[in-house]
Every structure is written in C-alpha cells, then in structure tokens.
Known about the structure:
single chain
Amino acid sequence: MATKSPTSETPSKETDATDYPKPPEPPKKRGPGRPPKAKTATEQAPKPKRGPGRPPAPKLDQLLGEQFNHLAGALGVAAAISGSSKLAFDAEVIANNAEKLAQNIDKVTLNSPKLRKAMIGVCTSGAYMELAITVGSIAIPIMANHEMLPPQIAGLFGMPVPQHETNDKG
C-alpha cells in the first residue's frame, strides 16, 4: 500500500486577499512641467457677475413708525369727522410718540428673532392690514351701536348713526 505523504496532497483552496483583482487606480494628475489640459468653450467663458444678492432686511423701527403714523392719521380723520376731542387727543399722543415707541419695540425684538420676523411680516404684509381694516369696519359700528364708542363713529364706516332709545337695554 502506498501511503501519501502530506506534501503530495493537493493544497486546500482557501481564499486569500491576493486572489481578488485589484480595483482600478484613479487617473494620475498631470506630471510636473506638463501644460494643463485645454479648456472647453464653456469652461473658458467668463462667469456671469452675481447680482447684489438678497435685499437688505427692512428696518423694523421705520416700518413700525410708519404704521403708528398711519394710525394717528386715521384717528385724526375720525376725530375731524366726528368732532371728538378724545379721538383728536389720541391721534396727537400716538403721532408724538410713534418714533420712540417704534425704536423701543425694535430694541426688544433684537433678542427675539421669531418676534422680530413676525413684526416685520405684520408691517409689510398688506393682507394683515386688510384683515384689520375689515374686522374694524365690522366691530367699530357695532361698538358704537352699543354705546361703547360715540355713535358718530358708525358714520365713518358708512353705517347710519345709531339712535339710542332710553328703554333699550341692548
């Protein structure tokens, strides 16, 4: 009987890291002293100049000052039409303090970005002002009808001046 020597056995096939093909190497950069690759027409074209970018953020104190002055003006008109000295006084107080109030609100909102953004949105959005005017045009005549405001105020909104009866407990 012939015995096989351990060296005559076929070697077992174990996977070795050298059995796998190597991944392709990345392309080499041009060697030193070699001129750069020629650029295509689109690469050679100058880049367009960038615009000025985002417009500067509106200054909140100016926006608020304008809003307060508009409010003072509207109260002044209401005072002139109704003859109310109280409304005239209110309009004057708001107009005299509009700038200072706007500056102080601006300072407060510097520490609160969310509040600042909301205030700027309210001041710059026409939709919010339209909503406020619509709600006011409904609420003010109703308040005048219930004697919470002078009855002449209702006339500013195209409503008849309410005639209050003495026995009405409305």
